[in-house]
């Protein structure tokens, strides 16, 4: 089958809930991907940050194949010998006490929401069914009905209602608005420290510190969704470490699965997590031995290969290279570490830039309609970044000339 035949077949038998670029991939190694026609591409998106270690990282593959031959899934009806070391390491890197493993990011967000509400009723004394969680406008936390219910993206919501009540929206990183929005029934805030899917938006330096203070003053849990921003993406283990704050709960996913599995977790203080008792929440696959083995290896690779430092240093290379581009199509460049968004003039759809990049052998995808995202695997080499950005410059030049 050729490229078109694959795409036509997918259109026929697959739901149309994505609009992928017309490329059919069959192989990946490090920062490179190959399509079924043998054409090679530089991956500057890392599957929305799930592939921070590059494709088929040898240590991930070795850990996974080793574990596949030993033990994979037993459910949490029994203990397995891989879960404890994984959760211990995860708690250690997050400076938190206990973790609850799930699979997809959205499930871990749901786990955090349920924990926050239960904590609100049982520890804060909020009257039953009155708990409120404060979230940000333009948030992205996943695709379940509860989560999309508090999204501000109309297309994520239309005809998916009715939605779960109990969420209050404020402008992102607006701490004056947070103060006003808090009531006696507020159990938690749930924020991305840097908003990813909305187009890579950073708040003012200091907003997380302010947020911590307001949460402390009001006995409100500070929960951060670091599914995309965490595990080195911004040049620190977690984006909240750019300010000296400690959240009460952190949600991780994406890169935690080493680019091969869906591994997520809610990590929290003991006083939050101990609201969970046997039987009231769970997941058949969450915390399985294979996922735990891969998750631990992913965390170890971050350290052993100094990927936080790489992300910080190469992030500067990426940012500098982007800022050198002279194009009337570029309106703004923002980001941290190896996570940068380039806002494109509205007259050229960002999707068109991505299409042009694909033709030049670079793969990425727009965030929102006007932002090109650059989030390469953290193992990328400087020369490959520079080559990729050269292609970007050429793509912009091609598009602005007609
Ligand atoms: C991707 C993402 C999610 C959802 O993760 P899934 O694995 O797709 O369910 C949640 N929050 C943030 C910040 C994300 O980037």
TrEMBL record:
Q: What PROSITE patterns does UniProt report for this protein, alphabetically?
A: AA_TRANSFER_CLASS_3 (PS00600)
- What is the organism field in this record? Candidatus Berkiella cookevillensis
Xref: InterPro entries: Aminotrans_3 (IPR005814), Aminotrans_3_PPA_site (IPR049704), Class-III_PLP-dep_AT (IPR050103), Orn_aminotrans (IPR010164), PyrdxlP-dep_Trfase (IPR015424), PyrdxlP-dep_Trfase_major (IPR015421), PyrdxlP-dep_Trfase_small (IPR015422)
Which PANTHER family does this chain map to? AMINOTRANSFERASE CLASS III, ORNITHINE AMINOTRANSFERASE, MITOCHONDRIAL
Which keywords does this chain's UniProt record carry? Answer: Aminotransferase, Pyridoxal phosphate, Transferase
Any Pfam family hit: Aminotran_3
The record, for CDD domains, names: OAT_like
Q: Per the entry, which co-factors are needed?
A: pyridoxal 5'-phosphate
Which molecular function GO terms apply here? identical protein binding; ornithine aminotransferase activity; pyridoxal phosphate binding
EC nos:
2.6.1.13
Q: What is this protein called?
A: ornithine aminotransferase
What's an example GO BP annotation here? L-proline biosynthetic process
Question: Which parts of the chain are coiled coil?
Answer: none
Q: In which pathway does it act?
A: Amino-acid biosynthesis; L-proline biosynthesis; L-glutamate 5-semialdehyde from L-ornithine: step 1/1
Q: Which family does it belong to?
A: Belongs to the class-III pyridoxal-phosphate-dependent aminotransferase family.
